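lol ok so funny story. i was supposed to be doing the assay writeup but got distracted and ended up predicting the structure for this chain instead. priorities right. anyway since i did it might as well share w the group, maybe its usefull for someone
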Amino acid sequence: MRTGGQLIVDALEANGVDRLYCVPGESYLAVLDALHDSKIETIVCRQEGGAAMMADCYGRLAGKPGICFVTRGPGATNASAGVHIAAQDSIPMILFIGQIGRGIKEREAFQEVDYKAFYGSIAKWVVEIDDARRVPELVTRAFAVATSGRPGPVVISLPEDMLTDEVEAVAPLPYTPVETRPGEPEIEALCALLDKAERPFVILGGTRWTEEAVKEMCGALERWSLPVGCSFRRQALCDQLHSSYAGDVGIGVNPKLGAYIKGADLVVLVGCRFGEMPSSDYSLLKSPYPDQKLVHIYPDPEELGRVYRPTVAINATPSAFASAFAATAPRKTPVWANRTEELHQSFLEWSTPPATGPGKVLMGPIMAHLEKVLPEDVVICNGAGNFATWMHRYHHYRRFNTQAAPTSGSMGYGMPAGVAAKHLFPEREVIVWAGDGDFMMHGQEFATAVQYGLPVIVVILNNGIYGTIRMHQEREYPGRVSGTMLKNPDFAALARAYGGHGETVTETAEFAPAFERARASGIPAIIEVQLDPEAITPTRTLTDIREGR
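and the output, tada:
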């Protein structure tokens, strides 16, 4: 005889879970009690949105579902921010929610929410377990759903009284991963199109990659001399100093790269959906009928033909496709080899930080310094905002699993992601790259880093505004500032109040020694970089945008 709570933990252990993220609640006390006797490490977070984002980051970097537990009502709705990220970013994740008792549903009981209705449009699957005997079945099914095809979040509602029921149930079995492989005809069709192409381009993106798959893919690209770009915030899928790398295909794409993609005669999308942001509002690749011939490789058949009508559709995971493509070779010397070299050189110029700018703190020299001192396996975690442009454009991602950033454009992601990344890779350096508005959304998870002794380094670019919105505001409504100004705390003092290390940078030359002191502290650290609001982008000031320059 096992309680429903014990059966939940049994099923997690059977499916290989070694850690989970939670904010405790009385609605799932029976699970917390069962965790007391398990080998699963429980990371206690400060807000449910942060806990869900940590689970997302774990799923993103580990390649298996991140697990999050929250309580009913406010806890569940707070967690929705992380679930939305996992959905749009195709990240495997399972959110467990404590629910009201089964006998009082439909009365608007305390903190009652219909989770199938609430999460139905963003989760891959939502289920409520009413019978404890079905826990082994439904939890293992959740792992299968979260990881198969296009990965995504699953939400499981757990009625409080179900968790205390004592029942006999079957022993849980682990889920079976599903790998979809390309057939020989599809690979031959791709090679035939490449043989006829003069201006091909490859775009890597999505999830379900492995380090070995990235290595195989990059080796094949070199053999074919194919130019390649990475989709928005998937830059760790190719060494950016690889001879074929042409740049990030995301927001603010290099104009030379954008022009080349528009003029390409063949585009090969590997693993990515290539949505609104990376496609520059579907202008690089027109929807539904691209100007270019399109080969689309994706693990979920429902996505093939959904947004773009491909010339060749290949239903395969990125890993399986990379393995198959690695076995191919061009039948003749590629005619595009010189263009590949030109695109790579253009990327190197595009990603060279500027030496000048407005204000006493110049981000160009700071980025140049970080490029010199950061190890190749550093993990960069960031949320959303104009501040992220500095890292996306000027940092060269060299290895797999070194980037944790939401393609959904969600603010507040960096700090919780940094906690999860450092916990997953304690031997690697982890940098949280944040804006002031961005950090304040989930900055309290800095306390979680302190609690678990995770020495992340948080760099906050503080310009006292919601920068991205202000930029758009100045462009659309010049000089009419409304709702975008911020009054911030002393971030260095905040770090010290939490038990961490704090630094404040007011001039460019102060950054390098501040960064080294933060490293040497051996504890979680915040470096506040006080940035002039005029430095809104690497190439244009707020005044430039306001005046239409």
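The chain has a mean pLDDT of 97. The radius of gyration is 24 Å.
back to the writeup now i swear
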